[in-house]
Amino acid sequence: MDVLRGLTMMGMTIVNNPGDWGHVFPPLLHAEWHGWTPTDWVFPFFLFLVGISIPLAHPEGTFSHDWMGKVLTRTMKIFSLGLFLAFFSKIPLFGLEGIPVLLFRLAITGGLVILFFSAYDLKLQFNVALIVTSVLMVLALGGFEAFSSVRIPGVLQRIAVVYFLASLAYVYLSTIGLGILSILLLVGYWYIMMFSNLPGSGVLLPGQNVAAWIDEALLPGHLYSATKTWDPEGFLSTLPAIVSSLLGILSGIALRSNRPISQKIIGGLISGVILVGLGYVWNQEFPINKSLWTSSYTLVMAGFAIWFLTTIEGLIYVFSDRWTKPFVVFGTNAITVFFFSGIIPRVLGMMKVGDDSLQGWLYSSLITPFFPNPYLASLAGALVYLVIWGGILTYFYRNRLIFKV
User: Fold this and answer.
1) Most exposed among 74, 254, 315, 373, judged by the fewest C-beta atoms under 10 Å?
2) CA angle at residue 202 from 201 to 203, to 5 degrees?
3) Strand-pair partners of 35
4) SS3 state of residue 284
5) What is the number of H-type helices and E-type strands within the chain?
6) Taking a C-beta distance cutoff of 8 angstroms, is the pair 368, 19 a contact?
7) Contact 245/48 with Cβ under 8 angstroms?
8) How far apart are CA 76 and CA 132, in angstroms?
9) What is the phi/psi pair of residue 34, to 5°?
10) Whole-angstrom Cα distance, residue 45 to residue 68?
11) Which pLDDT tens digit goes with each residue over 209-226?
12) Helix crossing, 238-256 with 175-194: angle to 10°?
């Protein structure tokens, strides 16, 4: 699991940090609308891994108040970290700009990191997470001008919500129940999007579908800045996203079983074929679409995730695990990479060298002179960023510094 998580983190680091967004090889961009590219593997793989981790972390599968407190605390922390990424560039300081406001924002970031990544009394962690989440939501929805357009949905926010709901499903439902719930969510979402009487039903165009109508109705002004009237991590499309984690839970239960590893590998390969096949059949009526997280997209991506997981398990079984270290290094500190990969570009973008940002200056000075092809230069920029993170995470790994929320 750590290997697949690390591979996914590496993919995220590359696709989210090109040297130049104007020159990116198509496979390293999301599909424009229907269809998929390798970039569209990243997010559903994360949710699938969230699902796998649930039964591995809580094999008893029973409800307890201590367990619920930990789940709620982690949910609020992940949600708040995602929300803070949206707040970071909007935090004001008495009208000041430049370095003073940057230092102020970094100081707040440091405080949040200490509160969320440190180990201390669990009950106090819960109270801190509750206070931080409440403050951020009040600032977002309280009519404050500086935060009037702050985005509330997001990647970490969806991960948090899905983690919470999938965890509840795990402790309250049997394996069969999890499968039935997955079917109900996928079919129910398909029905709402295509056959209900809600505005936009039967339409799958950007901003003109049921999911977009719900987003705009519930969170006007607080949606993805590139789309404004709808959000790719919006409300309705979270329903099938839950299934991405439910299928991960089912895979985690299978991994925990006492069956021989050869049977697990064969079972995983067959399961992947079934899910991808069903997804492509459904694609004829409900197209594969990451932005809408369609039911067909959910199945196809889960099938791919199972194939990757099974292949990794097979390679380790046949060749040992010595080759896995670079991936494990990224996988064991995933939330650290995720959060700071969002903060660092914002910081570099605020720091100026002449008329250019520090990020732009570093790229034009240190990368582009060596790559006449702008697409190769852009890819090189992403790979350099990946290598830098690799160095940092290797240091953490060797010194057993693992940061979790």
Assistant:
1) 373
2) 90
3) 289
4) coil
5) 15, 2
6) yes
7) yes
8) 8
9) -70, 155
10) 25
11) 999 999 999 999 899 888
12) 160
The structure tokens listed for 110 are: 């440091």
| Spans of the chain, pLDDT less than 70 | none
Instruction: Extract the tokens encoding 161.
Output: 């919500």
The domains of the chain are located at: 1-30+327-405, 31-319
Greatest CA span in the chain, whole angstroms?
64
Query: What is the spatial distance between Cα 322 and Cα 300, in angstroms, rounded to a whole number?
Result: 30
Three-state SS for 288-351 is: CECCCCCHHHHHHHHHHHHHHHHHHHHHHHHHCCHHHHHHHHHHCCHHHHHHHHHHHHHHHHHC
Overall residue count recorded for the chain in this entry: 405
CB-based contacts of 57: which residues, under 8 Å, 6+ apart? Answer: none
Structure tokens at 102: 């940057």
Single-letter amino acid code for the residue at 275: L
Helices marked H in 142-294: 155-172, 175-194, 210-218, 238-256, 261-282
Q: Quick: pLDDT tens for 349-400.
A: 888 888 888 888 899 999 999 999 999 999 999 999 999 999 999 999 998 8
3 state SS of 132 = helix
Distance, in Å, from the CA atom of 87 to the CA atom of 296, rounded to the nearest integer, reads 33
